[in-house]
């Protein structure tokens, strides 16, 4: 990150990337981004700018003169593709930062995604809603509940006036509303919103998908706060099971032995089983959710051995997928010890087989 104090050229209005106030500092790497203060430049750099700095140059520089309409249309198409890629990148980064508890840093990423979404889709598009939701959740995390209500009201209004809105977006809206009401201590309303989240996520992805599990997790947290541990416990178990099965599939694909071709003549390549991996946000979500459940299980009196063993095994698989072999072995050993006190022989065998795979891996 570099500073470049500047005097605004006459007639040119430069605005801060974060607050849209008059800007007096320029990023000397991309030279197309401006700030009102060093604090805002640092905040943007930590949140998203260091990741997208070089990409902004082509997107924000003045268009070159192109002699033909065909060349101009080709350039516009290329820019549109890059802007859509920026929307995906900034949203994923913002969501990842939220799962990591870095709410302040998620704001610049969400603002960038909103800016590009408006540029590509217009001010009233349903495509803006995911950005509003990240801003809303960041505001909840920062305790700025009035601001969160404004962002979520804008998202809700857009959803209501868009009949073709997907269940996936509705699910995220209701999840954020559930988090807002939970932060306000209105638990019954929070549970109602989270139930709507789970319904729409199940319609879109199925009841046992990791994208549905977030609703179960937040609902479990609300029941936990209410002291209703029997219900919370069953929901935490459901979340663990969903992540466990998803991670097990990834590990199976990553560690299976490739098939050896047989016969003679030209080889016909069969479509191999593809790894259904995790994006950055899903990785951060898995780390947050599974560690939270593990901490709860470890200190839980009268817990079932299977519950702790399963979440330990899930964490071992997660860290294996993230190439943190040391942590994978640590949780794997805990899973082995815990599963010895469980009656489910299948779980014990699966853990032992996984540990054999881990022993072949180098610790970074």
From TrEMBL:
Keyword Iron applies: no
Signal peptide as annotated in the record: none
Coiled-coil blocks: none
Gene3D superfamilies: 6.10.140.2220, Tetratricopeptide repeat domain
Keyword annotations from UniProtKB, A to Z: Metal-binding, Zinc, Zinc-finger
SUPFAM superfamilies assigned: HIT/MYND zinc finger-like, TPR-like
Residue spans crossing the bilayer: none
Residue stretches making up the MYND-type domain: 16-53
A molecular function GO annotation: zinc ion binding
Name of the protein in its database record: MYND-type domain-containing protein
